[in-house]
Amino acid sequence: MPRIITVAAAQLGPIQLAESRQSAVDRMIRLLERARIRGVEFVVFPELALTTFFPRHYHEDLAEADHWYETQMPNNVTAPLFAAAARYGIGFHLGFAELNTEADADGVTRQRRFNTSILVSGKGDILLKYRKVHLPGHAEFDPRRSTQHLEKRYFEPGDLGFPVIRAPMGGLSGLNMGMMICNDRRWPEAWRVLGLQGVEMVALGYNTPSTNTTAQGFEAPHLRVFHSQLSIQAGAYQNATFAVASAKAGVEDGHELFGHSIIVNPQGEILAQATSWQDELITADCDLEQCTLGKTTVFAFEKHRRPEAYGRITEQVGAIEPPVWSRDTAMVSRATDA
Ligand code: CDT
What we know:
By secondary structure, the protein is an alpha/beta fold. It is built from nine helices and 14 strands. The chain has helices at 21-37, 79-88, 151-154, 188-195, 221-238, 290-296, 301-304, 311-315, 327-337; strands at 4-11, 42-44, 91-103, 109-120, 126-131, 164-169, 172-181, 201-206, 242-247, 249-252, 255-258, 262-264, 270-273, 280-287. A six-stranded mixed beta sheet has the order 5-4-3-2-1-14. A six-stranded mixed beta sheet has the order 6-7-8-9-12-13, covered by helices on one side. The chain has a two-stranded antiparallel ribbon with strand order 10-11. 40% of the residues are buried. The structure holds 4-methylsulfanyl-2-ureido-butyric acid. 4-methylsulfanyl-2-ureido-butyric acid is lined by residues 47, 136-137, 149, 182-183, 186, 206-208, 212. 4-methylsulfanyl-2-ureido-butyric acid binds at residues 47, 136-137, 149, 182-183, 186, 206-208, 212.
């Protein structure tokens, strides 16, 4: 029985500061309607899809930013999106800011803020939640930047790891699905943790500025898209998985996001790519059998991985400079290698 699923990246054009969540949800429902006509079974919406990319706006008092977050999901505003998806039998991925109030072991309530995404089934059930691990940017206002990127102020690093679930999706009784959010795509460790759970489909939302205001001339704008696609294509290939990467695009609050949403196969090839800075649906038929080649040959992890050589990946955060070469260190290194 072939395992084929039709998927879409539902790119969103800009959501301006004053645009309401209700309007963003209406736009997403229109994209779902187009998805239904094209026979799509799973749709990926971007990171922080309900509002403008608010981490570019500085609030001294964190509480002043609380209106950007969702305290429950679904809620009154997003319920129509869940209902539309269930009506059409289409599963979806949605990124949003999560404000969670919880009591710690001592009974003290604490507010926790995460950059979150969820996978929702074609029946409207939340199947899996992920909280962004790799938060880019900075925590304090940076006067040298023309665009602030305050994710480290507004979110704490995700505490759920990189989970994968075997989920019913479209006509398939089970599909191994995982998520990452924006900056995560640049980290091979994130892909490999998903790969080690047999992931077959990675849903990924992003908001990436077209220019890096701290690059000081070392990163031409065309390289920004190149680096995004390089990371997604390499991650998909090296873990033998499909990836559906959906962007926010265009000029939002005066700041440009580069779009270029893509769907990638397990060979690392781009199957579909957005060409506008608007709301745009790109689709592809994904034959999951295409994951088998990589998973059973070059990237048959159980045969070829050598975790005993990868200790630094989990033991160390920053780079540690190597010893300076000398005849003595060369001898030591030969002795250690032997
Ligand atoms: N949203 C997000 O993670 N954006 C980052 C921009 C990094 S520039 C500070 C990205 O990796 O695309």
